[in-house]
Each structure stands twice: as structure tokens, then as C-alpha cells.
Amino acid sequence: MRLEDIPNLNHLNSKNFFLLAGPCAIEGEEMALQIAEQIVKITNKLEIPYIFKGSFKKANRSRIDSFTGIGDEKALAILKKVSDTFNVPTVTDIHEVSDAAMAAKYVDVLQIPAFLVRQTDLVVAAAKTGKVVNLKKGQFMSPESMQHAAQKVLDSGNTQVMITDRGTMFGYQDMVVDFRGIPTMQQYAPTVLDVTHSLQQPNQSVGVTGGRPEMIGTIAKAGIAAGVDGLFIETHFDPANAKSDGANMLDLNKLEKLLSDLVAIRKVITTL
Q1: Tens of pLDDT along 238-270?
Q2: Contact 56, 76 (CB under 8 A)
Q3: Cα separation of 13 and 8, whole Å?
Q4: Which domains occur in the chain, in start order?
Q5: Is 82 helix (H, G, I), strand (E, B) or coil?
Q6: What three-state secondary structure class fits 171?
């Protein structure tokens, strides 16, 4: 995959990692624009290639009363407005074959959720839109097995594929990141580390996913040091009241300091 082929992706000559960041879910237009504006300001300052992330719907929920979205077309239109307003590409996840063509009208990157990355029909549908496809590594999959998911995209006539590691299940309610998987998956496609989902604590008895956001800096710094191509970070200006995944999101006010530290580490790595 060539980052140059992603529309409106800026700062490609900076030699920085690229960043997928934004809220877990699109809760409304005002919140999406507010978060995007702040991240764009930070990434422009630090010259980080940036893709705005927001789920147009949340299909994988623990409870039937969990927030799933504000309406598919409404949320997708907000993603398009973010892109048009700030001149940045956008990414959203899809869950059904019919989502692929619909979402492709609004966003630049289609993301396959970790639980669904073995679903051949879904991966092929995303690939055939011609959009960049971001494959989240299943929590139950080895890094080596992701070559087959990436190959499905390639065999569908689409060379625009990347892989995102989001941790591996460790028992029932915890995740671990095996940094050995980064160079392994880089053999197949550019590789991203999903920092915030790697710190999830799923399957809580209350039916709401927990997390360890205090470890975000640790995992992100380790990922950059390991040579990952990009980072994925979910962030919100009020994580405690976010409608989805608030327990493992980064407070937006802490993002600039973290990214500044990561850029400094990246500079050291690229001079070795």
C-alpha cells in the first residue's frame, strides 16, 4: 500500500508515523467537528499524516441497550463533513457486506473489525470498493495468519491494504500486545498499532467494557520504538461520558503531549 494514494493525507514527507485517531463512535456533528479540529491542529503542528476515525455504527456490543449509533446515513454524512471541513481522509468500520458500498461513498478507508476479519465476503466487499482496507487483527489470530486476510484483498484486485494489531486475548478479560508481531505483519502490509483497543478489558460482568488508559503512553511509545508504521488512538474530550469505549479512550487534552513524545522517539529511531 502507498500512503500517497490516500486522498488528502498530508505531511507525507515528514518521515513520521501516520495516525488514525478520533472518537470511538460518531455521537453527533458538533462533537465530531470539535475533536477533529483539535487533532488536525496538533497533527499539523507536529507534521503527522492524519486520518480521522469514527464508527458510523457500533454493531459489536455487550448488551442490547448499549449505544449503537445515531443513524447510518447521518453518521456517515458527518464523517464526510469532517473530511470536507478539515481536508483530511476518514476511516470507519463496517460490519456487513451491504455496509461496504454505502460507507465507501463517504469515507476513504474501510476498516474490518477484529472479530470479523476472517469473514471472506465482508473483506472482499470492502476490497472491491477500491477504497483502502484496514484489517484489524483478530484477538484470536496469530500475526502470521494475517497474511491470508491481506491476500484476500489483493486477490480481489485491490493493493490498498493495511493491518492493525489491537492486542491478543489473555484470559477472559484482558489483552496483551506481542511486539514481535509488528515486523511479522509488516512483511504483508503496512502495520498499525491500535493502542487504545489493546488496553481494553472486555467481557466485564456489568456488560460494559473496561480499560487501562493510564497505559496508553507506554504501549504507544513501545510501538514507535518497535518501528510500527502507524498508530490508532481513540480519543474524546470527555471520555467518562462518551457513549462507547470511554474506559479505554485517551483524554483529548493529553494527546498533544503524547504525540510530541512519540515524534521525538520516531526521530531517534529513523537515525539509527
Answers
A1: 999 998 878 889 999 999 999 999 999 999 998
A2: yes
A3: 14
A4: 3-271 (3.20.20.70)
A5: helix
A6: coil
C-alpha 25/C-alpha 187 separation (Å) is: 31
User: Rounded CA gap, 68 and 60, in Å?
Assistant: 8
Round to whole Å and give the CA distance between 176 and 230. Answer: 18
With contact defined as beta carbons under 8 Å apart, do 25 and 69 qualify?
yes
Nearest-angstrom CA–CA distance, 259 and 87: 20
**Beta strands per DSSP E along the chain:** 18-22, 50-53, 90-93, 109-112, 132-136, 161-165, 168-169, 175-176, 191-194, 200-201, 210-211, 230-236, 250-251
| DSSP result, 56-69 | S-----SSTTS---
- Band of residue 204 on the pLDDT scale cut at 50, 70, 90: low
User: What are the φ/ψ torsions at residue 73 (nearest 5 degrees)?
Assistant: -65, -35
**Per-residue pLDDT for 136 more than 70?**
yes
Grid coordinates representing 245? 469505549
Assign 270 to helix, strand or coil: helix
Return the C-alpha cell found at 120.
Answer: 471472506
- Report which DSSP code applies to 53: E
The whole-chain average pLDDT of the chain stands at 94
Distance in angstroms (rounded) separating the CA atoms of residues 222 and 177: 10
Instruction: Give the integer Cα–Cα distance in Å for 119 and 97.
Output: 10
Cα-based angle 187, 166, 152 (whole degrees, multiple of 5): 50
Which set of grid coordinates corresponds to residue 73?
446515513
**Residue 192 DSSP SS3:** strand
* Cross-strand bridge partners of residue 142: none
H/E element, 223? helix 216-225
Residue 119: pLDDT over 70: yes
